[in-house]
Structures are given as C-alpha cells and as structure tokens.
Design goal:
The structure holds 3 protein chains of 3 kinds. Chain A is of the alpha/beta class. In chain A, 42% of the residues lie in helices and 19% in strands. In chain A, strand 13 and strand 14 form a beta hairpin. Chain B is built from 12 helices and 2 strands, in the order αααααββααααααα. Classes of the chains: A alpha/beta, B mainly alpha, C mainly alpha. Chain B: Pfam families: BPD_transp_2.
C-alpha cells in the first residue's frame, strides 16, 4: 500500500518534471487520484435501470485499465440519491469539495441530472449522464462540462417513428403519460411522424401510475390508427402493453410501439406479452461479438444483462479515463476538449462523437421484441432490425437551443 | 358522446370499482373496530399479489423442489391467509400497544410498516412489474356483452368482488358474530362483560381486513404487473373513497367504491385530463355538502 | 430566563456552524427544521395531524422559484410570495378540513395535498419531473446584500428560520397558544367557555401552512431548485417523522428531529458505496426501509421523541 503511494508520488514527480508546461494547475492529476462518482438511484423506482449495476459497470471499466491512469490510482465512489434533488446535490457538492471527485456519472432521474450537471459545471467538473432521457440536458440546461451519453427521448422517438413509417405504419395514435416527460416523448415523435409523411389520428392522456389502461386502449383503438405509440415509461408502460394483449388491441394490422423501453421492461413483461413491440435503443448486449463480450462479463458480476444506462456508465468511465490519459491531466477543460475530439468505438458505443452541446451522438438501434419461440435463452429478447446512424438519430446541432452552440 | 360508449366506459370502470370496493371495505372494517386508518393497506395489497407470484414462480425453487407451485386458484386462499397471519403478528406485537394512546399513532405505525414492506420489495423486484404467468385458461379470452367485447377475467373479478362485499356485509349486519362486532365497536367494555374475547375479536378483524387487501392483490395480477409500488398510489385514492363513503360505513365504502370506479371510467373519455383528480375533487365537494360522507352518520 | 438562553444558544450555534460543517447541507437542515417547527404548531399544540403539509412546502418552493427565476425579483420577495401562497392554500385546505378531527382530518389533508401534487406534476411552469431548476437570485437581498455565496445563503436561511421560530414561539406562548392547548386537551369545554374553536384552529392551520411555505421557499433559494420531491406525499410523511422523532409539542424537538432525519438520509446516501454488500444488508439499509423502521420504533417505544424524553428524564431526576 505504502509502496504504491510512494511509486505514485515518484511517478507524479517525474511526470510533472518532464512536462511542466502542460500541467494546468501545477499538478497533472489533482491530489494524486482520479475519483469517479457514480450517483444513482439504488433504492427507488430506477434501481433496476441503474443502481448497483451501474457501480459494477464503472468498476469494470476501472479494472480494465488496472485501476490506474497516468500512474495514478482510479477510485470509484457511489451514492444513492434517492431521486431527491437535495440529497443528490448535497452529495455531489460534498464529493467535489471534500473528496475531490473528478467526474460524476449515471444520475438517472432528469430532475437530479439537471441540478447536478449545473452544480458540477459551476465547480468545473465533468458529468456524464447516462440514465436520464430529458433533452433539456443538452438544450436549455446545457453546460460546458455536462455530457449526455447513452440516449435521449428525441433519439428514441425519432428512431422508431421514422423507421416504423418506412415500414408502412403511416397513421398513429398516442397513449401519453400526462406530465412533462410523456408530453415531450409525444411531441418529439409527432414532429418526426409529420416530417416523414405520417399522420397523427389522436392522442389520449393518462395519469402517472395508472393501473388500468383499458379505457385508453379502447379509445386509441377507436381512432382506427395502425400504430399505437406508448409515450410513457416503467410500470405504466408494462401495464399498458399487458392490457393491450388482454383486449386484443394488437394484431390485424395494428401494432404497438414503445417510446422509452429498457431491457428490464421487456424482462418485466415477458416475451409473451411484449412480442412484436418495436422501439429504439442505444445498446443491446447481443448485437455483435463486442457487445456480447461486455454483456456477458457484466452478467457474471451483476447477475443480469446491462441496461443501456448501465452499459453507458461502463463506456463513459472507460472513455473518460482514455481522455485523461491522452490529455495527460484530469483537468476538466483539457479532458472535455480531448473527449470532443475522440471518436468513440467500444463495446457499447459506436461512432460516438461528442458535440458542443454535450450530446454524444452515436449509432442507435431499431429493435423488435422476439416471439417466445424464437428466443433461445433467458436474455435472448430482442432482434436488432436496423442500425440508425448517429447523425440521423439525434436532434441536429443546428436545432439545439444550447447557448454554447455557435451559430 | 354516444350512450354506448359511456356504457362501455362505465363497465370498464366497474372493474376498477371492484378493487376500490374490496380495499375500502377492508379499511372500513378495520376502522370500525380498531379506529385505525390502516396505512399499510396498499403495501399489503401489493404483498398479496407477490404471494401469488412467489408461490407460483419462486417457492418451489426455494424449497428445493422446482415442481412445487401454488397456482392461481390456490393463491386466492393462500395469499389472504398468509397476509392475514402477518396481520395477526402486526396487531398482536405492535398495534395492540397503541390502543390506549391517540388513534393517530396507529396511522403513523402502519405508515412505517408500509414503508418497510414497500422498501424491501423494491430491493428485490422490478419496479416495472413482474410477469405473472399463471392465469387459468378458463379466465382468459373475452366474451361478448352485446355492447362491447369484455375480457372474461374482468367479469370474474367483478363477480368475486361483489360476492365478497355482499358476504362481508351480510356477516356483519345479519349474523350473531357481526352483532358482537358492531357492539364491540360501540361499547367494548359491555361486550367484554358478556364474556366475549374482545382482544381476539380485534385481532381477527384486523387479519380479515388485511386479508381482503391481499385478495384484491391476487385478483389484480390478471391485468396489472405485480410491482413493489403498485399499492402506494392506489391507497391514497382508496382513502379518498373511504372519506367520501363515510368512514367506517361498510355499505358506504362498497357502494362508493363501485360508484367512483364508474365515475372515473366515464371521466376518462369525457375529460381524460381530470381522471386522476376527479375522485379528490368529488371528495372536496362531498365534504363541503356532507362532512360525514355520503353514508356516514354525523 | 431559560428561554432567553435557549434563543441565544440557537443563534450562536447557527452562527458558528458554517465554520464546522458544509454550509449548503446546513442551510438545507435549517429549512427542514423550520418546516418541522411549523408542522409542530399544528400537531403539538393544536393536536391536528396534517398529512398534507408537503403541499404547502412544495407549492411555496415553486412560487418562490417562479418569482425569483422568471420574474427576476429579489429573494426576499420570493420568500414572501411563497409564504403568502402557502398561507392562502392553507386557508383553503383549512376551511375544508378543520371541521373534522383526528384521522378524518389527516385523511382530508392528505387527499387535498394529492390534488396539489397532480397540478404540480402537470403544470408547465413547474417543469414536471425535470423540476424548476436554476432558481438563482439575480438581484441582491433588498437590493443591498448579495446572497450568491453559499455562506451568505446559509445566513439568509438562518435569519429567516429564526424569525419563523420566533413567530411560532410567540404564538404558543400567547393567549392564542393557551386557547389552542385548551382545545387540544378538551375541545367541548373550550367551546362551552365561549371560544370560537373553529376559528382558532383555522388560524393555527393557516399560520402553520404559511410557515411551512416559508421553509419551502427558503429551500428553493438555498438549493436553487424546486422539484416534485418537495410536494409529494412522502415529504408530508417525512415532516411527521421529524416532529415525532424530535418530540411533538416541545419547542426544540422538531429542530432536533429535522436534523436527525435529514442527517440519517445523507448518511444512508453514502452507504451505497459498499456495492458488493449482500442484497439483504442493502435492502434493510435502503432509505425507505430505515425511515419506516424509525417510524415504527418511535411510535412503539419512543413516543415522547428525543427532546421530550430528555425533558422527561430531567424532570424525574429533579424530583428525586
């Protein structure tokens, strides 16, 4: 233990002696350790999407580089923000002020995500949000050090809308969770439908946490639309799908589309109820040899396949460390600049390019849930129909309302 | 708005009303004798659904014989019994110590119990719900009601709910046991003087009330994914229904449960935006006009 | 005499604290303490359990956030606006609920608060689940003192909270407070003595709601955000827990309780660090479960609360 500290110190001294000019604040790695904070929901409704799995994913990325970058140790700290903004910001502040955390990732809930991104940027720290869907993170609320990683609601809605219309699903109707998040999912999808020559025949709003969707499903069915899009998430989404099956809403040329689906939701529904569902996502473990490599390694440690959010944490930490290595420092400006120049290609992210507004643009996938008989294993759930190149998947930079984007 | 469509929505609402009725009935029974609002009711409703789920999918594995499983029909009995026993434990070890104090302590205690149960399940199960694969084939599919195609499962739930509610009402209002119960509510000392074991009666009443919640939980698995958070949102609505019906009124809670299910259903087509607040708005109106609730005695 | 020392002690502790602890966390605790003190006015002195106080706390936070962020007015105006809004909402709730007692009262306040929550969830002004972010006071306090630094914000919160404590303290030690206690002990008798019971209770309710609103407004300013957590029914439960744990009906109990509950929450947040611990250990240390266990423990064995229990012990020892 002592030895490593001494070695580290010596290495730091040598390195700083060799490259004194590039060091931003006199030291290349501030306080001799690169600390990464995984701030996530470990006890609430998003615990399966992120939670403990995200900490494991971050640890895997650190283990891969031998727990060291530029000769300095890399440490993971984690905390449960309980989906409370006050707990999250207090933890983030404490991490930055007293524990010298250099980067904060995961974040999940968008209220928490926006607040922490804002706070961290004021203190010149990078945040990489892999869990929240809100596009506000890279528009109105964008910051110089805030990065939005794995997906966002724009990409999810756009991908599936454009692709389903291409396959002939021209007229749509929505079942939308009646609050800001659901409305933003619907608005994003609507814009894409109209752009691609489809029509929206109707929309019905349901309250958050609805147990019974029958009424909404029948109303949607009555519009005669061929595509019923579910602009909701989690328990609302799974119950809507389950009851769509009960009422025989799907079939006869009518299909169901989900606008925000995690692999855990499909697991929650079971293939029997979920089969045929189309959606967009940012990562699926069984896409190719590389994605499988990470998925299976994660499975071994966490006991489940990673969600796109957990996989995003792995990739975020891995590439953050690469950028630190390349920049030769953990100074946020330098690392952010390197990240902006990199093209990210790894087990999770393909053709990833980080933009000025903080959006990581990368390939997305149009997926369809498999039929039960086509599934060969407990996690063989999806079939990837098509790859959607990043530039087509995400909101164009020109449309971003982020003030950091030069126009 | 066509009449037929309103009728359809009312029918769908009746299904939700079936749950409101069973849950508020359980609350009313407990409130009647114990004078406690059982805040844990939602968590125990959730627990009922999970007893059915675990019994079907996990129990066999835990016991080392994977073939062993408790099916849907058995769950209808097993879940209320298991949760009822838990109710006995809660009443005997905790609630009992609080009767001498302000009744509000009972509310706070059950609130704590609800947090613990829900918090534990959130750690082990998916909050998006878990699939329940055991609905018997005879309850699957749909039947033609003339004005709409209605899933058989929902008809089944409505009939069970009606039967349970009527049975409970009959037991309390028309039998000797019910007479003791009612007397125990009014004058526990006198009833005890007649040699009736009032503490036992209280324990069993609590167990029965939470057993009803568990039954509702099992009935729910046919249309809703069992999820650790399924009870939390439901319960506040049911509280409002109990207030509207008049607290402690058996017939009031049942009638209001079904009625409000239908009102809510119709609201979903007429003005969907208001569907989640209509119950609370009605509650405010009822309180202004009739503070004791629709069926309560002032 | 005792009282004077108490106040001086509180103020001194408040002054020194930021040199020992992190200001923003302290400021948050101060907000919760005021919230709990406001709540205690109802439960501790009027015997009314409101299960909907998050409605006042949260809606005031949104109102304050709107005034400060979107109308660009000073933080003092934000707090005043939040307080007034919560007071008005309190008058509305109160006029519906005050006629009932005990559990009925609790249920009605809970259901009314639910309506307010749904409005906050849907309204475009609140930002839904994104929350109202970036509530930064653009103008200085009264146009004079900037509260941009953490420490300035903390002292602002401390001063306002102390004012709030003083208001509650005055109220319970006034004839009004005496009537309240009389109603709590024996409502029919108070009625027969000619007190306008309903009006006194309503006044207490409005005062409690308004001060809960002050706390919520302060929280929005201190943490620069107002979110759905502030207005959800779980927040109503938390303030009950704070008051219960600290000691209902004691002057300092709610403050102690608020510090303890919020402290435990922050501590639990970091237990997550041990990612490889067993699932069961993680489960029983999850925030919800721990809060629930504290509730059960308090109700069963610790009804006087921390401060109440201390006072009880002290009294008994003095009598010996």
């Amino acid at each position: 233990m002592k030895k490593t500290v001494i070695c580290g110190l010596v290495a730091a001294l040598c390195a700083s002696a060799a490259l004194p000019a590039t060091a931003a604040d006199g030291a290349k790695i501030s306080d001799g350790v690169v600390r990464i904070g995984v701030l996530t929901d470990m006890s609430g409704v998003y615990a399966q999407v992120g939670g403990k799995g995200s900490v494991i994913a971050a640890q895997m990325a650190v283990d891969e580089v031998g727990g060291k970058v530029l000769g300095m140790p890399v440490e993971i700290v984690s905390a449960d923000h309980q989906n409370k903004v006050d707990i999250a910001t207090a933890t983030a502040r404490q991490w930055i002020d007293t524990q010298k955390v250099d980067m904060i990732t995961e974040l999940l809930n968008s209220g928490v995500g926006i607040a922490v991104q804002k706070l961290a940027s004021e203190k010149k720290r990078i945040t990489i949000n892999t869990g929240a869907g809100s596009t506000a993170l890279t528009n109105k609320e964008c910051t110089p050090y805030g990065i939005h990683y794995a997906y966002d609601v724009f990409a999810l809605a756009k991908g599936v809308a454009a692709e389903v219309i291409k396959d002939g699903g021209k007229d749509w109707t929505f079942i939308t969770a009646d609050y800001a998040f659901g409305q933003s999912l619907e608005a994003n999808a609507r814009a894409q439908i109209e752009k691609n020559g489809g029509t929206v025949k109707g929309s019905v709003k349901h309250p958050l946490n609805t147990a019974d969707f029958s009424s909404y499903l029948l109303q949607a069915q009555a519009t005669g639309a061929h595509v019923i899009a579910l602009a909701n998430a989690g328990g609302d989404f799974t119950n809507a799908v389950k009851q769509a099956k009960e009422f025989g809403v799907v079939g006869g040329g009518r299909s169901l589309v989900g606008l925000l689906i995690f692999i855990t939701d499909i697991k929650a529904l079971g293939l029997d109820a979920a089969q045929g569902l189309k959606f967009t996502e940012g990562y699926y473990w069984d896409y190719d040899a590389q994605t499988r490599k990470f998925g299976e390694a994660f499975m071994k440690r966490a006991g489940s396949m990673p969600t796109m959010s957990q996989a995003g944490v792995y990739s975020a930490v891995k590439n953050y460390l690469k950028a630190v290595e390349k920049a030769g420092t953990d100074d946020a400006d330098a690392v952010r600049a390197v990240l902006g120049e990199m093209t990210i290609n790894d087990e999770v992210i393909r053709n990833g390019k980080l933009r000025a507004d903080g959006r990581l643009v990368h390939d997305m996938y149009l997926a369809q849930v498999k039929e039960p008989k086509a599934s060969k294993g407990a996690w063989d759930l999806e079939q990837i129909l098509r790859v959607i190149p990043g530039e087509q998947a995400y909101q164009p930079l020109a449309e971003s309302t982020c003030t950091l984007v030069k126009k | 708005m066509e009449f037929k469509q309103v009728l359809q929505q009312a029918m769908l609402g009746l299904y939700n009303g079936a749950f409101y009725a069973i849950l508020s009935l359980g609350l009313a029974v407990i409130f009647g004798l114990l004078n406690i609002i059982n805040f844990a009711h939602g968590a125990l409703y959730m627990l009922g659904a999970f007893v059915a789920l675990i019994g079907l999918t996990l129990l066999g594995g835990w016991l080392g014989s994977p073939d062993l499983a408790i099916g849907y029909w058995a769950s209808l009995i097993v879940a209320p019994v298991v949760v009822g026993l838990l109710g006995v434990v809660i009443e005997r070890t905790m609630l009992r110590r609080l009767y001498q104090f302000d009744h509000l302590y009972g509310l706070l205690l059950t609130f704590g119990i609800a947090l613990v149960i829900q918090g534990l399940f959130t750690q082990f199960f998916n909050t998006s719900g878990e699939p329940y694969p055991g609905i018997p084939p005879v309850l699957q599919g749909a039947t033609d009601l003339g004005f709409m195609i209605f899933p058989k499962y929902r008809l089944w739930v409505v009939s069970v709910s009606l039967a349970v509610c009527l049975g409970t009402w009959f037991m309390i209002e028309r039998t000797q046991l019910g007479a003791y119960l009612r007397a125990g509510t009014e004058k526990p000392d006198v009833v005890r003087a007649f040699g009736i074991n009032v503490p036992l009666m209280i324990t069993l009443t609590y167990a029965f009330g939470v057993g009803l919640a568990a039954l509702a939980g099992v009935l729910a698995v046919g249309t809703v994914q069992p999820s650790p958070v399924m009870g939390a949102e439901m319960i506040i609505k049911v509280f409002a229904i109990v207030v509207i019906g008049g607290m402690g009124s058996i017939i009031g809670s049942v009638a209001t449960g079904f009625l409000l299910g239908m009102v809510e259903g119709v609201t979903k087509v007429i003005y969907p935006e208001a569907a989640d607040v209509v119950i609370f708005v009605l509650m405010a109106i009822v309180l202004l006009l009739r503070p004791a609730g629709l069926f309560g005695k002032e | 005499m005792m009282d004077k020392r108490l106040w001086i002690g509180l103020a001194l502790a408040g002054l020194i604290a930021p040199y020992l602890f992190y200001e923003v966390t302290l400021a948050k605790l101060v907000c919760f303490a005021l919230f709990a003190v406001a709540f205690n006015l109802l439960i501790g002195y009027a015997g009314l359990l409101s299960f909907g106080h998050a409605a006042f706390f949260g809606s005031a936070a949104y109102v304050c956030g709107y005034v400060v962020r979107d109308l660009h007015l000073g933080p003092e105006l934000g707090v005043v606006a939040g307080t007034l809004a919560a007071g008005l909402l309190g008058a509305l709730f109160g006029s519906l609920a005050i006629r009932r007692q005990g559990i009925y009262f609790a249920m009605i306040t809970l259901a009314l608060a639910q309506i307010v929550y749904f409005i906050a969830l849907k309204s475009p002004i609140t930002g839904g689940e994104d929350g109202m972010q970036g509530v930064k006071a653009a103008t200085a306090l009264f146009g004079l003192v900037s509260i941009e630094s953490n420490r300035a914000r903390y002292y602002f919160a401390l001063v306002v909270a102390l004012l709030g404590f003083a208001v509650v303290y005055r109220a319970i030690h006034s004839p009004f407070g005496a009537v309240l206690k009389a109603i709590r002990e024996n409502e029919p008798r108070a009625l027969s003595l000619g007190y306008k019971v309903e009006r006194v209770k309503l006044l207490a309710f409005v005062l409690s709601a308004a001060l809960a609103g002050t706390a919520g407004s302060l929280k929005a300013i201190v943490l620069e955000a107002a979110t759905l957590t502030d207005i959800r029914w779980t927040m109503s439960g938390e303030v009950v827990l704070m008051t219960l744990l600290g000691g209902m009906g004691t002057v300092t109990g709610p403050i102690v309780g608020a510090f303890t509950v919020a402290g435990v929450e922050s501590w639990l947040a970091n237990i997550g660090q041990a990612a490889e611990v067993s699932a069961w250990l993680r489960a029983i240390t999850s925030a919800q479960v721990v809060m629930g266990l504290i509730f059960i423990f308090c109700v069963l064995l610790f009804r006087r609360g921390i401060v109440g229990e201390l006072q009880h012990v002290m009294k008994r020892n003095l009598n010996l």
